[in-house]
Every structure is written in structure tokens, then in C-alpha cells.
Specification:
- The chain has eleven helices and six strands.
- By secondary structure, it is mainly alpha-helical.
- The chain has a single domain, classed as Rhomboid-like fold (Up-down Bundle).
- The strands form three sheets. A two-stranded antiparallel ribbon has the order 1-2. A two-stranded antiparallel sheet has the order 3-4. Strands 5-6 form a two-stranded antiparallel ribbon.
- A hairpin with a 3-residue loop joins strand 3 and strand 4.
- The radius of gyration is 20 Å and the shape is globular.
- 32% of the residues are buried.
């Protein structure tokens, strides 16, 4: 099976009807949140991870909603393309339940870590928003499926998945430092990586896929045999 994967270098995202359920939901929510933010800027402000409001006003929903506070048409187009491509590859392998849990835990854990950092003396509050944190975790999870598998960087430069992921990290880190020079913002952007690693390389007690339904199949023969899968 691995040899067959090694022949694949770049495959575009599937058609809309073949996009898995959770990936489709993420695409719809992201696009809708962006349009709502364009039409009603206060909406994006209510979703962003404003750590002062999270800690002072207990507006805890922001720990989950901050990736949907999306600013910039290129950011949403680029984000939708990556979710469509990588989500459509990961979700069928993991199952929709596991991928759905991953999609919730990434912003939550990154949000908790980023908010906690602001409690350090002289760090101060921060404002985090946008899909970059979720996309970094998504790309890391995709890379960990096969770090040495070949891919083309946006269909042009040949490289393996590990190099692609490292380039993504460099771009995100430089972008965050250039935009805000904020350590908490950087934690928001990178805080989902441990979740990606846990889901892709689970410890022994989490191995297997507890999110899939176990099924029994009866094979008729000289006597009934029950196959578990």
C-alpha cells in the first residue's frame, strides 16, 4: 500500500459531492463567517480570541471561534483550498468523528495555551484570529501520515511532505512576527501542533480508532463464521 502512495505527487481536491461531511461543514462555516465579517465587522470581533475578554469577561466561546474571525479575501481563499485538499484526505482515513474532534481540539488547545501565555508578567493581552493556527495543525497531521512522500509545492516545486510542512511553519512564523511581534499570537498559531501529533502518532493506549463503529460480518459456509472488523 505504501508503494502505491509513493507514486502520488499531487492530487487536487475532490468535487463538492465527494467532500467528506466534516470537511464540508468547515468549508461552509469558514466561508459564511468571512462573509458575515465583511458585511458586519462587529461579528468578526465577537469571534476573535481577545484574551482580555476571555479572562476578564469569561467569554469562553472565543477559545473555539477565533479561527472563523477571518480577515482578507486571499486568506479565506487560501484557507478554503487547504481545508478542502487536506481535510478531504485525512477525514476518510480517520473517520468523521475523529476528524471532527480534531477540528474542535486544535483551536481549543491553541486558544488555552495562547491565553495562558498572556498571564506571564510583562506579556500582556493579545488578539488572535484567522485560520492559520488550524491550517498549521492540519498540514502537520497530513505530513505525519508519510513525511517522505513526494508532493509538489503548489503544483510547481517538487519536495517531500516534511519539507512542505517546514516551509509552512517558516511562513506562518514570519507572518505572525511581521504582523504583530506578539509571542501569544505565535502560540495561537502553533499551539495546535501537539494535537496533530497526538492524533497522527497516538500513544499505545490510544492506538486503533475508537471513533469508528465496529461491525460484524457473517460469512456463510460450512458453518457460520463471524468476522470482526
Amino acid at each position: 500500500m505504501r508503494g502505491a502512495y509513493a507514486q502520488v505527487q499531487w492530487v487536487g481536491p475532490p468535487g463538492w459531492r465527494r467532500v467528506p461531511l466534516v470537511t464540508k461543514i468547515l468549508l461552509v462555516l469558514s466561508g459564511s463567517a468571512y462573509l458575515a465579517g465583511v458585511l458586519f465587522p462587529v461579528f468578526a470581533g465577537a469571534l476573535a480570541a481577545d484574551t482580555a475578554r476571555i479572562l476578564g469577561g469569561l467569554e469562553l466561546w472565543r477559545l473555539l471561534t477565533w479561527p472563523f474571525a477571518i480577515v482578507g479575501v486571499w486568506n479565506i481563499l487560501f484557507g478554503l483550498l487547504l481545508i478542502w485538499s487536506f481535510g478531504s484526505e485525512l477525514e476518510p482515513e480517520w473517520g468523521s468523528r475523529k476528524f471532527g474532534l480534531f477540528s474542535v481540539l486544535v483551536p481549543l488547545i491553541a486558544g488555552i495555551l495562547g491565553t495562558a501565555v498572556t498571564l506571564v508578567p510583562k506579556v500582556g493581552p493579545a488578539l488572535a484570529f484567522g485560520l492559520s493556527g488550524f491550517l498549521v495543525a492540519l498540514i502537520m497531521a497530513w505530513m505525519l501520515r508519510g513525511p517522505s512522500l513526494p508532493v509538489h509545492f503548489f503544483g510547481v516545486l517538487p519536495m517531500n511532505r516534511k519539507i512542505f510542512a517546514l516551509l509552512t511553519l517558516v511562513i506562518v512564523i514570519l507572518s505572525e512576527l511581521e504582523a504583530a511581534r506578539s509571542f501569544p499570537r505565535l502560540i495561537f498559531a502553533l499551539g495546535g501542533i501537539p494535537v496533530a501529533y497526538l492524533f497522527s502518532r497516538p500513544p499505545g493506549w490510544l492506538r486503533g480508532n475508537p471513533f469508528r463503529r465496529n461491525r460484524f460480518r457473517v460469512i456463510q459456509g460450512d458453518r457460520d463464521r463471524y468476522h470482526y472488523h
